[in-house]
Design brief:
heterodimer; A: 67 residues; mainly beta; Ubiquitin-like (UB roll); 5-stranded mixed sheet; B: 255 residues; alpha/beta; TIM Barrel; 5-stranded parallel sheet; 10 strands; 36% helix
């Protein structure tokens, strides 16, 4: 599978079929991560269930220090 | 109590979380400041370095009301998207609308700020726009339903303090929602002055995180804000051109 994550093309194993498995793949499933999938912001409660397809565009954002 | 939308705070200091020397100093500074509201930003995650420490992990987030900002946005559209991303975390529904119109001064774009605030109010956010010290813009932001108005004291991170106290006073006098002086505070006396002018609170970051000893400065800011507020409530004496003796002039044993 090939996705565009945060603007970069990223290859992941074919087993990565959902946002949940993508977050596990990158070892960020227990962190505060907000996901935008093809321009749609996913709610935290249901984001892991979102199915993914080859070529999907994803934004993975989190909170950083700021004022 | 400082009331913003549905929230009530005993502390009138809102603290930013940017640019501390490290997360331990940050945590200690946040603790001693006794703030109840933390600001922060939304950024892309580096998925290839998942173990990079994040400021959220050091703080007991559940003890604070979180105030994400839309820093980085140059248009209303970008600000709205950033706010929605933050809210999707399920951790917050307040937002500091920050739409920067000029990269050198980091002054807010008034028209985009108004547009973004309007849109976010429709979406049900508790909206706190960072604005210039323009008196009429502050009024317009209140009229559309913003829950607090956050005029800058001087440019972000400049530490110049309050460059136009008259405008801030006008904004405060006119407002029926809390006025939080945001940006430009450099020293405890700046924060105290803002509170003496009648501000409902102060939002600052660099003044603490960039101080030689951020923990001490966090404490100093807390005390300055409390002192300034008390002074405002007490009502200062009017300024006079010449002296008035504090000691009685009757019953002197000399002359």
């Amino acid at each position: 599978m090939r996705f565009f994550i945060n603007g970069d093309q990223v290859e992941v194993p074919a087993s990565v079929q959902t946002v949940g498995s993508l977050l596990e793949h990158f070892d960020i499933d227990n962190k505060v991560v907000i996901v935008e999938h093809n321009g749609n912001i996913l709610s935290k409660d249901t984001q892991t269930e979102q199915k993914l397809e080859d070529g999907d565009r994803l934004e993975l954002v989190h909170f950083v220090g700021g004022g | 109590m400082l009331k913003i939308g549905p929230y009530e705070f005993s502390s009138r200091l809102l603290l930013g979380t940017g640019k501390y020397p490290n997360f331990d100093v940050q945590k200690e500074a946040v603790d001693v400041s006794e703030t109840e509201v933390l600001t922060f930003s939304v950024r892309r995650m580096n998925i290839f370095e998942p173990n990079q420490p994040n400021f959220l992990e050091k703080l007991e987030v559940e003890n604070y009301t979180l105030l994400p900002n839309t820093a980085g946005a140059k248009t209303a559209e970008e600000a709205v998207r950033t706010a929605k991303l933050a809210k999707a975390s399920g951790l917050c529904d307040m937002v500091k609308v920050e739409v920067i119109g000029d990269q050198k001064t980091l002054l807010p774009d008034p028209i985009e700020t108004l547009k973004a605030s309007e849109e976010l109010l429709k979406e049900g956010f508790i909206v706190l726009p960072y604005t210039s010290d323009d008196v009429l813009l502050a009024k317009r932001l209140e009229e559309i339903g913003c829950h607090a108005i956050m005029p800058g004291a001087s440019p972000i991170g400049s530490g110049q303090g309050i460059v136009n106290p008259l405008n801030l006073e006008f904004i405060i006098e006119n407002a029926n929602v809390p006025v939080i002086v945001d940006a430009g505070i450099g020293s405890p006396s700046d924060a105290a002055t803002a509170m003496e002018l009648g501000a409902d609170g102060v939002l600052l970051n660099t003044a603490v995180s960039g101080a030689k000893d951020p923990v001490k400065m966090a404490k100093a800011m807390k005390l300055a804000i409390e002192g300034g507020r008390l002074g405002y409530k007490a009502g200062r004496i009017p300024k006079k051109r010449y002296a008035t003796a504090s000691s009685p002039t009757e019953g002197m044993s000399i002359g």
